Amino acid sequence: xxxxxxxxxxxxxxxxxxxEFPLIPKTKEVVVQxxxxxxxxxxxxxxxxxxxxxxxxxxxGIGFTQGTDGDILQTVVFHASxxxxxxxxxxxxxxxxxxxxxxxxxxxRYALKxxxxxxxxxxDADNQYTDDGKKKKITPMAGIMDEVxxxxxxxxxxxxxxxxDYMNNDQPQEAYESFRSIADQWERxxxxxMLDRKMKRAIKDLSAVDxxxxxxxxxxxxxxx
Length: 225
Fold this sequence. Notes:
Layout: E1 2-3, H1 8-20, E2 28-34, E3 37-43, H2 46-59, E4 62-69, E5 72-79, E6 84-90, H3 97-116, H4 153-168, H5 172-180, H6 185-193, H7 197-211
Antiparallel strand pairs: 1-6, 2-3, 4-5, 5-6
Helix pairs in contact: 4-5, 4-6, 5-7
């Protein structure tokens, strides 16, 4: 993370703004078709987030810009005082403009949420909280990440982001192929443990379809249970 020499004025203003942020509703629904049927999930569109947040940010002298520098998405949060913070996120290598555009929009939404500390409501509330009402953390199952080599931990996180990107952009086949390409059993188990149950179901369904294709010389490895 890059930032101006001083950021305390920006941070103080951002804290006040965050106290006024509403819970961003997930208003857009995506339906994913599989061999066994279809399922849907919701997300908060970027334009809705900006519409709700910009008046609050402006009130506290805060603005933001997003742009690309080569294969990097830059999100800059700045204050009227001149202080700023920059967040950088790698962009996907996409050969087709339409796919690149959808991936860029998703990453802009994700980066803005992270930069401003925005929360969205949950489309699967029963699966987001423990029995005592505490919010679950999206982390690998206990002990799995310990088995992943230290130099590969960051790559595993990127794999998860990529698969989630595909799912959120209605590209389950690409998500399946990305998961299927993971050769190391512990890396595969760590990625699997960080996917939600709908994404796991889509991958399992596509794996079942893949195994029925006669042209496949070998079956793909079984997904973790």
